Amino acid sequence: MVEFYEIDAEARELRIAATRPGYSSHTIYSRNLDTARAGDLDGDGRWELLAPNQDYTELGAIRHGRGEAEVAWTLPLGGTLATNLAGAPAPGGRVSVGAGRTDGVLRIWP
Questions:
Q1: Please, which of 30, 34, 54, 96 could form a disulfide with 84 given CB 3.0 to 4.6 Å?
Q2: Is 9 domain-assigned?
């Protein structure tokens, strides 16, 4: 589950502000601990967390806003994720993302 936190200054603690089930940043016991990326990935001025679904067959861009976590858009992998995600700056303020699949294919979204 993806969780977004915020500071409760009065209580002097972090609290969960929003959650989104069905997505994860890593699998327990896996060496891949970097299967999520955060940033303004689509160049619209809002930050997204790009994380795989529980089956590792799709990446979801999750945004936190107005007390909820919503899936803004998705990227189908066409297979099963096997690697960490890589990101690189792209034209227009976007970010290119790369991911390797279990069948040996490297998927890149420009």
A1: 34
A2: no
Q: What is the C-alpha separation between 100 and 108, in angstroms, rounded? A: 9
**Global pTM?**
0.87
Using the structure block, give the residue that is written with the tokens 């089930």: 21
Q: In one letter, which amino acid is 102?
A: T
Count of other CB atoms within 10 angstroms of residue 76: 10
β-bridge mates for residue 69, sequence order? 64
Which residues make Cβ contacts (< 8 Å) with residue 21, sequence separation at least 6?
A: 1
Report helix, strand and coil shares of the chain as percent, to nearest 5: 5, 55, 45
Location of structure tokens 């200054």: 9
CB atoms within 10 A of CB 20: 19
Q: How many domains does the chain have?
A: 1
What's the pLDDT tens digit per position in 38-54?
988 888 899 999 999 99
